[in-house]
From TrEMBL:
Belongs to the mannose-6-phosphate isomerase type 2 family. This is mannose-1-phosphate guanylyltransferase. Residues 323-370 form the MannoseP isomerase/GMP-like beta-helix domain. Keywords: GTP-binding, Isomerase, Nucleotide-binding, Nucleotidyltransferase, Transferase. It is an enzyme of class 2 (transferase). Its EC number is 2.7.7.13. InterPro entries: GMPP_N (IPR049577), Man1P_GuaTrfase/Man6P_Isoase (IPR006375), Man6P_isomerase-2_C (IPR001538), ManC/GMP-like_b-helix (IPR054566), Mannose-6P_isomerase_type2 (IPR051161), NTP_transferase_dom (IPR005835), Nucleotide-diphossugar_trans (IPR029044), RmlC-like_jellyroll (IPR014710). Pfam families: ManC_GMP_beta-helix, MannoseP_isomer, NTP_transferase. Residues 27-309 form the Nucleotidyl transferase domain.
């Protein structure tokens, strides 16, 4: 029998046509940290990745959309419990469907978080490729990013643990560096990774950049789930053991995956760099020029933002006169800056930051001092977001406090009571359905209701528009921990 003879290019075309399509890449997004160097905008209760700092989308949304579309599976997001509803809502607004949101009981750095994501993915697809990235980095060249990810994915399928080295644009002391080795045979665009270099001082940073062999460490990685777990088993078995118990003991809570708290707390606090990347023989790097920034300080944000002819970045209600190379942001009142150069001025509802751009890294020291003094401004904004909406304090005095509460349509607060305060609610927009000791009362605009000390109560918005009310609290103790939840639709504890 005569057999058809295929030319090499024909054979490869037929092989590609008959071969199954590769499994989609799974984006793994780490959304931890407080971004304290971007205080007073970024705080632990509402960190930088949840803010629209570069574009109209939040940093988290921009990150999730980079890993959306053909060739990508729904993402795995690892975050803390406090941010879960905010993250879920931001993903919904960005059109990201099917995300798995994994809740860390306590922050343990990147290695335990990544191990948990890899284990969850490996339960169905051990050979799946994971693209791990932080939720708060900026990428200025998305086309170059796609090419870099494609090269990294190919190398990851060859059992490499691949990171991305960013072409340095300055002698930066706030980043770690990667020394690049020889190109890897059979992996176009991918090089051996010689070593990691800790964040250097200014002189050493200048030396590294001038030498041409070092790149910024972006912290992004690509690997298969089974490769990462194999390397962790060899190099960080204590991390793997603790995380495995936390994953095996997980619970599903609404749309969230709760890791077993006691087991996860026993995981060492260690980064993926220290736990695996610096120890493995499989490390590789993709050199890339992506217009990348970790947006770790106000100076870095100024660097990646669009500037006017004088080099200024103005956000919000800002007036500039004879100012140059400044970053000025106001999230509220009008802010005027005159005669300043290289200044950073940030105004929020409850705090003002003024610093020279060269001292932008020192903002963390301010936050540390505020935290040491027990100031709530170190960790929380005046506006506090909840799964049902938000509230903000308007006036606080001796034995009384006035708040504005906004409840989204169809949402309701927990059924609760207080031991130390009574409350008076005045509806100013929308309609409230109030439960008070078993009685249901419909309260309309310009109407009010009194909730005496110790009564069981709940606030519900049955309407189609946001419900806004003014709450007047009175009593000897008015802190938020005087809330006894009897029933809660969001499984809060």
């Amino acid at each position: 029998m005569n057999q058809a003879v295929l030319l090499p290019d024909q054979a490869s075309r037929e092989d590609r046509a008959s071969a199954p399509a590769p499994a989609p890449v799974v984006p793994v997004i780490l959304s931890g940290g407080s971004g304290s160097r971007l205080w007073p905008v970024s705080r632990a209760s509402f960190p930088k990745q949840l803010w629209p700092l570069i574009s109209e989308r939040t940093m988290l949304q921009e990150t999730a959309l980079r890993g959306a579309g053909d060739g990508f599976a729904p993402p795995v997001i690892v975050c803390n419990e406090e941010h879960r509803f905010l993250i879920a809502e931001q993903l919904r607004e960005a059109g990201i469907e099917g995300a798995r949101i994994v809740l860390e009981p306590v922050g343990r750095n990147s290695a335990p978080a990544i191990a948990a994501a890899a284990m969850l993915v490996a339960e169905q697809h051990p050979g799946a490729v994971l693209w791990m990235m932080a939720a708060d980095a900026a990428i200025g060249r998305p086309d170059a990013l796609r090419d870099a990810v494609a090269a990294a994915v190919a190398a990851a399928r060859d059992q490499r643990i691949v990171t991305f080295g960013m072409k340095p644009t300055r002698a930066e002391t706030g980043y770690g560096y990667i020394e690049v080795g020889e190109p890897l045979a059979g992996s176009p665009g991918v090089h051996a990774l010689r070593r990691f270099v800790e964040k250097p001082d200014a002189a050493r940073a200048a030396e590294l950049v001038a030498g041409g062999r070092h790149l910024w460490n972006s912290g992004m990685y690509v690997f298969t789930a089974d490769t990462l777990l194999e390397e962790m088993r060899e190099h960080s078995p204590d991390v793997l053991a603790a995380v495995r118990r936390a994953v095996e003991g997980r619970q599903t809570d609404l749309d969230f995956i709760r890791l077993q708290p006691e087991a996860f707390r026993l995981a060492p606090d260690i980064s993926i760099d220290y736990a695996v990347a610096e120890r493995t023989s499989r490390a590789a790097v993709v050199p890339a020029d992506l217009g990348w920034s970790d947006v770790g300080s106000w100076d870095a944000l100024w660097d990646v933002s669009v500037k006017d002819a004088a080099g200024n970045v103005a956000v919000g209600d800002v007036l500039l006169e004879h100012a140059r190379d400044c970053y000025v942001r106001s999230d509220g009142i009008v802010t005027a800056v005159t005669g300043l150069t290289d200044a950073i001025v940030v105004v929020t509802e409850d705090a003002v930051l003024v610093t020279h751009r060269d001292r932008a890294q020192d903002v963390k020291k301010v936050v540390d001092r505020l935290r040491a003094d027990g100031r709530h401004e170190a960790v929380a904004h005046n506006r506090c977001y909840r799964p049902w909406g938000f509230y903000e304090s308007l006036i606080t005095g001796d034995r009384f406090q006035v708040k504005r509460i906004v409840v989204s349509p169809g949402q309701k607060l927990s059924l609760q009571k207080h031991y130390h305060r009574a409350e008076h609610w005045v509806v100013v927009a929308g309609t409230a359905l109030v439960t008070r000791d078993g009685e249901e009362v419909l309260v309309r605009e310009n109407e009010s209701i009194y909730l005496p000390l110790g009564c069981t109560h709940r606030l519900n918005n049955p309407g189609h528009i946001p419900l806004t009310l003014i709450e007047v609290q009175s009593g000897p103790y008015l802190s938020e921990d005087d809330v006894v939840r009897i029933e809660d639709s969001y499984n809060r504890r």
